[in-house]
Amino acid sequence: MKFIFDRDTWQEIYGSIRKNKLRTGITIIGVMWGIFLLVVLLGAARGMENNFNKMFGDFATNSVFIWGQSTSKPFKGFQEGKRIRLKISDANYVRSEIKGIEFVVPRNQSQGFVVNKFKSLTTGVYGDFPLLDKVQKKNLVYGRFINENDIKEKKKVCVINDDIYKQLFDKGEYPIGTYIKINDINYLIIGHYKNKRMGGGPQGGIHIPFTTFQQVYNQGENIGWIMVTAKPNVNIVQVEADAKLLLNNLHKVHPKDGRAFGSFNLGDRIKKITGFLTGMQFLTWFVGIATLIAGVFAIGNILLITVKERTKEIGIRRALGAKPGEIRRQIVLESVFLTMIAGALGIIFGGFVLMIIDTMWGHGEGAALVNPTVNIPVILIAFITLIVLGTLIGLIPAQIAVSVRPIEALRDE
Amino acid sequence: MIKIKKLHKSYPVGKDFLHVLKGIDLHIKEGEFVSIMGSSGSGKSTLLNIVGLLDIHDEGSYYLNGQKIESLDEKKAAILRNKFLGFVFQSFNLISYKTALENVALPLYYKGIGRKERQEIALNYLDKVGLKDWAKHLPNELSGGQKQRVAIARALVANPKVVLADEPTGALDSTTTDSVMELLKDINDEGMTVFVITHEQEVADQTDRIVTLKDGVIISDEITEKGKKTKHYV
Fold first, then answer.
1. Interface mutation vs chain A, best among B47, B56, B73, B81, most A CBs within 10 Å
2. 8 Å CB contact between B84 and B131
């Protein structure tokens, strides 16, 4: 391996590259483009994934929402079209009977006309348990979320999100401890949270204790919908089917009646999106590697032409005592050198473009690609692949260079 | 130095074989200055290629410096070429993107000699052929005669046993021909075995011994007037 560190070896390589500057440059661009694409696409895919994770990071994604609708089949003496409403007891049954469940969160919703001094708006008001904070993490700016005590004492307190805050309060005003009127009833604001509007189900607004909601809106045991969260690695589609079957049974609905309960399977949706992301990553690798191979072949091709052009020179060298191994070695090294230079340039260039993407689309609320990066091991793997491919492809012109007998090579014009 | 016995060589031409060398016997002693003459097709280039280990003979035997040449692979041939032989070609065969000095130093590179030493030796030989001032010039900046002198320096630089010159003056005018022949004579005077192929009588006359080939056999082998004065033939 001594020859790799030999100045003369590199001088020889430099000499032959210098002779074909333009062609070498164009060839290098081929490989550079390949690895550039790989880096940028992988980075962008990663950015999308990060963005996605950021959006759903505060959300228990392995979950399904279930609500009551009306039946579509007559069963046990009931006509079709029977209205179904979920009860608190249903939530408890689901929690205790279905395997693999982490949380079952019952929720209620109603419209509310909200007033603070001279500002007002209409928004959704939710009756919630403290558990909601576990499945949809509330990033509280001030105060706290609803707690067990609020539930027990049916307190008239509420937690508002940033949108509501912005519409009801002046900028910089401290909302905690002030009262707002919801449908003419005063509620004390105990928390103010900031969340992106993401995830399934009806969206935020104002949360009041579940029990308070029951009382104020006269709901009794009725609930709007339940949010069922399965443990990680539990098939959420199965959980949804099991829960619905159980509910059909509890509400005396025909087991094959698919309309009695509506549902939105967030876990399934997200799985589809992550599947798409994985697919995109695969595609990225495929395109990147394919381009890389094409680029390496271009290098092989160019070396082949160079070798043909240099037949006579190689003949002279051999007449002067160059061993076939030395000729071969030099051409392979030339190939590896070119692919390495091209690879390094591509990686640098790709990294640079990712930096630009990051500064342009990677920050702020509407960031499309968050932190678009490529792991160092991935880069190393790509780089090593490149070197291996460069060596292999260099062997072809190298073999051709020495397969011509020196006497024929010398005759070549 | 070179001992050839009943050497045969034929090339396949379609289904037939073209018998180029038909039993050559030749013995060249160390320090001789020999020219091979013959018209084109007489087999003189083939003979030189075999002597120069660029080609393999079919039959007969060939000893170079006492070593029998047979079943050589390319690697061994390359080592022997580097060690024993220096080539001078009709078309100079200098590497166009290397300077005169680098061209001369190339055989030393393949011999495995270090860079500094290589350049020193090469510069010495360039000086010897009178081109020290042209060391940094590329071949296309040199005249034909200068190129051939660089080639001769390159042939000598690895200190070979035999210098093989294939029509060394074929691409030169008469004045430069004389100067190149003068140079070869000087080299020979220093004890180097020189083996020249030519079809020019004037060139052959400046050597010590003329071997004439015709249709693959030697038809005459005689000592020239000049040769009769040298120690080999007295």
1. B81
2. no
